[in-house]
């Protein structure tokens, strides 16, 4: 079965975006290097970040996002981000009326269904869950195996939390990876069971 990973860039005070859904400087590390991370020509990182991130990206088969992210990105115009094979959108609303692109986008009415669908689609590849409200719900439901954070040296002060509305304590194992990139610290933890 696939590994379920909660992932995102985050400020040192735990936010993935400001109150207006703007990441501000959280993604600057993705454009400040000289090594292309993908074929877009827009994502260039340090060699250290490339060596850490690229193998992970190559393992991702499915990304789970919430409807809010889907809407503000306009469904990435039907092309899943970062070369991912499938996107599962958690929503209690029907897909948009004008949404013509069926696959590789799938709509689920809850996190349990979303994770089950994603694991079926991913096979032995990684299921990535975008940090934020839906990611926090998946985490709180005990469905996350690993947490990956790209911690950026900025304090946002308020905004959208990495773990969404998670309010109960959850233990993680000691970090399995601590990698210092340029203006980013990559961290990887297993979730304690």
Describe this protein's structure:
One of its GO terms (biological process) is riboflavin biosynthetic process. Residues 4-169 form the Bacterial bifunctional deaminase-reductase C-terminal domain. GO terms for molecular function: 5-amino-6-(5-phosphoribosylamino)uracil reductase activity. It comes from Gordonia insulae. The structure is a single chain. With 193 residues, the chain is an alpha/beta fold. It has one domain (4-29, 60-183): Dihydrofolate Reductase, subunit A. 20% of the residues lie in helices and 28% in strands. It contains four helices and twelve strands. The chain has an eight-stranded mixed sheet with strand order 7-6-5-8-1-9-12-11, with helices on both faces. A two-stranded antiparallel sheet has the order 2-10. It is globular. The mean pLDDT is 94.
Summarize the structure.
By secondary structure, the chain is an alpha/beta fold. It is 20% helix and 28% strand.
């Amino acid at each position: 079965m696939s590994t379920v990973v909660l992932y995102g860039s985050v400020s040192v005070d735990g936010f993935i975006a400001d109150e207006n859904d703007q990441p501000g400087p959280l993604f600057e590390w993705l454009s400040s290097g000289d090594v292309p991370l993908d074929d877009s020509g827009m994502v260039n990182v340090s060699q250290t970040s490339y060596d850490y991130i690229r193998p992970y990206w190559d393992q991702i088969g499915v990304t789970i996002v919430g409807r809010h992210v889907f809407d503000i990105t306009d469904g990435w115009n039907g092309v899943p981000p970062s070369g991912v094979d499938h996107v599962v959108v958690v929503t209690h609303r029907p897909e948009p009326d004008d949404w013509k692109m069926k696959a590789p986008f799938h709509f689920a009415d809850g996190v349990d269904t979303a994770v089950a669908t994603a694991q079926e689609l991913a096979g032995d590849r990684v299921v990535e869950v975008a940090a934020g409200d839906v990611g926090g719900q998946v985490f709180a439901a005990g469905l996350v195996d690993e947490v990956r954070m790209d911690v950026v040296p900025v304090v946002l002060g308020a905004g959208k939390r990495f773990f969404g509305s998670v309010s109960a304590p959850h233990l993680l194992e000691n970090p399995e990876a601590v990698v210092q990139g340029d203006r980013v610290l990559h961290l990887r933890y297993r979730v304690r069971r």
